Amino acid sequence: MEIKRISTPLDEGTISGLAAGDKVLLSGRIYTARDTAHKRFVEALLGGGSLPIDIEGQVIYYCGPTPPAPGRVIGAAGPTTSSRMDPCTPTLLGLGLKGMIGKGKRSEAVKQALIRHRAVYFGATGGAGALLSKSVRAYQVVAYEDLGAEAVAELLVEEFPLFVINDIFGNDLYEMGLNRYSAG
Amino acid sequence: MREVQVRDVAEAVEKLFIDASINLPEAVLERLERAVGEEESPAGKEVLRELLTNARVAREDRIPVCQDTGLAVVFLEIGQDVHFTGGPLRDAVAEGVRKAYRNGYLRKSCCDPFSRKNTGDNTPPIIHMSLVEGEKVRIVAMPKGGGSENYSEVRMLTPSQGVEGIRAFVLDMVRKGGPNPCPPLTVGVGIGGNFETAALLSKEALMVPSGERSPDPPVADLERTILGEINGLGIGPGGYGGTVTALDVHVKVLPCHIASLPVAVNIQCHAHRIKGVTL
Questions:
Q1: Contacts of B106 in chain A (CB under 8 A)
Q2: CA distance B183 to B231
């Protein structure tokens, strides 16, 4: 299986070179945010405020890790189900977010927004939290510390293993997989 | 009559949750290894290999296999000749859970359903108690993740829907979940009883070791049939397409009302974490 090595922030050249089904190793800084952080993002924007992080060109990882044992950077750090963040996602893509990492299907509205704003949705293997934690070099909470595991954190990752699920061309790895392997 | 100190129960519960969160059962690991050979899709094989590496890393580094270390589900089978001493049994189980999630660096995922405020220590646990013969206490710990539990359901079928209806319901749930509940899945199916016992049966079905068939031949046949049908859906490991969507299907059955056919489907992710001990 061919592997593409990419790094953040994601530029147009990188994004246009990615297609659903590609295996990718991602390096650089990414941000964790999940259910409650997304709710607060939208509340901040609706209130006329700004986001606590600059998401231009950045990648958000839907992840709430386990607490690190002493001497470790992070605990298990796998993805959570992305669809719960769907209602907030087109807004964030409109603000320049270029990538998301999670697991599971996205809504039609998100897929259309990926095409329109030229951004990519990556899948990390759900339930592989121990393995994925090995690629995390640094973890620092940068917003909503009160949310504990759900706080927004900046992660420095090295060769984080991903698959491209939804690309800017409208392809969807989940649909491609079903079409290829469904018996009926 | 045998006396059992509740602090021994608390200690056992703590150990079980830490062990379950870090070490996948041998039967699950063996099943995943076999699945690598069975899987036809290259991406699916890659995911299965990642899961096996993940299990090894978790074991060696003592990190939870998944960051969703779940709500704490505890099954207690209590011999009727046991007398618990030293305090309330439920409090002791909760104390064991509290210590496990703190001392094992497990994620606390329990919150108020309205305010969403975290309870802070992953309590209260979900405790299922049953009385059995004898003077032993069997404790089973199942940290159950939210992503797979979200694709579980109880449906009150009509008797005329029969086995066809049951199969269609299970397939419908697996199809609906697709990649979200982290396939390859283990599927627990509870048939019969009433509304609440069907749900509990489906969870108990998940306690059957991977690869073990129902002792009742027609039920064992149903397990095989449903497993084959699920693996024909094409969802595959990680949902990237493939031929191993479920590792196993376990069915448990109870008699039901002449007017009803209650069926529950409890979906479990590939990280099928469960550990037990007998005191």
A1: 66
A2: 11
Cα separation, B117 vs B126, in Å, equals 18
**Cβ-contact B107, B18 below 8 angstroms:** no
HSE (CB half, 13 Å, CA atoms) of B63? 32
- List the beta bridge partners of residue B278: B138
Question: How many Å lie between the alpha carbon of B162 and the closest alpha carbon of chain A?
Answer: 22
* Cβ within 8 Å, pair B63-A65: no
Closest by CA position to B263, among listed B205, B190, B201: B190
- Alpha-carbon dihedral angle through residues A124, A126, A131, A134, given to the nearest 10 degrees: 50
What angle do the packed helices B26-38 and B42-61 form, to 10 degrees? 160
| pLDDT (tens place) for every residue of chain B, 279 residues total | 999 999 999 999 999 999 999 999 999 999 999 999 999 999 999 999 999 999 999 999 999 999 999 999 999 999 999 999 999 999 999 999 999 999 999 999 999 999 888 899 999 999 999 999 999 999 999 999 999 999 999 999 999 999 999 999 999 999 999 999 999 999 999 999 999 999 999 999 999 999 999 999 999 999 999 999 999 999 999 999 999 999 999 999 999 999 999 999 999 999 999 999 999
Q: Considering CB atoms only, which of A76, A148, A163 is closest to B63?
A: A76
Stretch (H or E) spanning B117: none
Domains of chain A: 3-181 (3.20.130.10)
Looking at the complex, does the CB of residue B184 fall below 8 Å from at least one CB of chain A? no
Query: Has domain B147-271 been given CATH number 3.30.1330?
Result: yes
Contact A131 B50 (CB under 8 A): yes
User: Which chain B residues are within 8 Å of A161, Cβ to Cβ?
Assistant: 50
Interchain CB contact of B66 with A (< 8 Å): yes
Give yes or no for a contact between B241 and B41, defined as CB atoms under 8 angstroms apart.
Answer: yes
Q: Which residues of A, range 56-95, sit inside 8 Å of B by Cβ? A: 63-69, 72, 75-78, 80-81, 83
Residues 6 or more apart whose Cβ sits within 8 Å of residue B196: none
Q: Looking at chain B, which residues constitute the CATH 3.30.1330 domain(s)?
A: 147-271
**C-alpha pair distances (Å), A128 with each of A134, A162, B22, B182, B230:** 10, 11, 12, 10, 23
Q: Which of A178, A179, A182 to mutate to test the interface with B (most CBs of B within 10 A)?
A: A178
Contact A62, A34 (CB under 8 A): yes
